[in-house]
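not sure who needs this but someone in the group chat was asking about Heme oxygenase from Anopheles atroparvus so here u go. i didnt clean anything up, its just raw.
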Amino acid sequence: MAESIPFSKQLRIATRDIHNVSDALVNAKLAFALYDSRVWAEGLLIFYDVFKHLEQRVPHDFLPPELHRTAQFEQDLQFYLGAGWKEQHTPKPEVRAYLEHLHRIEGENANLLLAYVYHLYMGLLSGGQILQKRRALGQRMNLLRRAGASHEGAALTTFEDQSIFELKQRLRKVVDEFGARLDDETRQRMLDESRKVFELNNTIIRTVQGVERANIRIIKYIAVAIMAFLVMQYLVRSGKIL
């Protein structure tokens, strides 16, 4: 019965509950912080080493070069953190634990890395696009933002000359064709590992600092906007502005 269901769909079904938890965590942790570049940069930094590891270890048949994002991570991090960010970068303990887990399962069965490829890159092509659009909207609304082109700092979620839909379809096809060749034991091991993806993601997301500061900053912006609106309403009603 399971074999008749595309393997990519099996992966989604197996992780539906913990995926919802992860979405809620991202929204609670980063919803307002999307407007704070320091918090955004830290969010990029915690995933940089994970994506880089996968792109160095997973064959192109399973992780097509057009999906590779290491260079784009580095471009965005240089934009936010400056040219010397690499020399100062040391992965957090939680990120190191994530990488150690990837090394461990690769030693057990390198094919298990495909679970990480599927969920992380589909996340980038789906939720990552939404987060970037929300961030871009927030920047347009922020009158104090640093001047510059709107695409600066958004290389990670920008796929030049690539259709997001087609990239998703290609990734699903890779996973479905691979899943069709698996025996029951390996298939179940892949499904179990898929849940681990979100557990590890949630662990490193919780390490992002500065969210409270960013939220206070946004509240201040909102308060200023409300005050400006009320003052304008008062002036109009009092006849001081026609």
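also Confidence is low (pLDDT under 50) at residues 216-225. if thats useful
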